[in-house]
Amino acid sequence: MAMERIDLAKAREIAKNKGLKPGKVKGTEGVQFTKGKNNRLDVITWEEFEEILEIRKLAIYESGGWMKIMKA
């Protein structure tokens, strides 16, 4: 199944259903989804998450309920 680019609203919906939150890798501008239990990640707001995606020219892709952040 191919990865399909999704918008932030769809990503938020999938994340909510899976208990995921937006996260930022400590000391970097790297972002990923987290359940909030990883010491290397800080949970951030969806607004900050979206801002980082825009600045770094990243997009969210989904396939079969799995999400991945990649270059747009």
Molecular structure report:
It is built from two helices and six strands. The protein is α+β, with helices and mostly antiparallel strands and 72 residues long. The chain has one domain (4-67). The strands form two sheets. The protein has a three-stranded antiparallel beta sheet. It has a three-stranded antiparallel beta sheet with strand order 3-2-4. It is globular. The two termini are 19 Å apart. The mean pLDDT is 95.
Summarize the structure.
The chain is an alpha+beta fold. The protein is 29% helix and 38% strand. It is globular and about 35 Å long.
Name the features.
72 residues; alpha+beta; three-stranded antiparallel beta sheet; 6 strands; 29% helix
Order of strands, widest sheet = 1-5-6
Radius of gyration: 11 Å
Compressed to H and E, one letter per element, the order equals EHEEEHEE
Strand residue content: 35-45%
Helix content: 25-40%
Counted by DSSP, the helix tally is 2
- Whole-number mean pLDDT: 95
Measure the end-to-end span.
19 Å
Low-confidence stretches: none
Number of beta-strand segments: 6
Structural category: alpha+beta
Shape: globular
Summarize the main sheet.
3 strands, antiparallel
The protein's oligomeric status is single chain
Number of domains: 1
SSE blueprint and pairings:
Blueprint: E1 4-6, H1 8-18, E2 21-25, E3 31-34, E4 41-43, H2 46-55, E5 58-63, E6 66-71
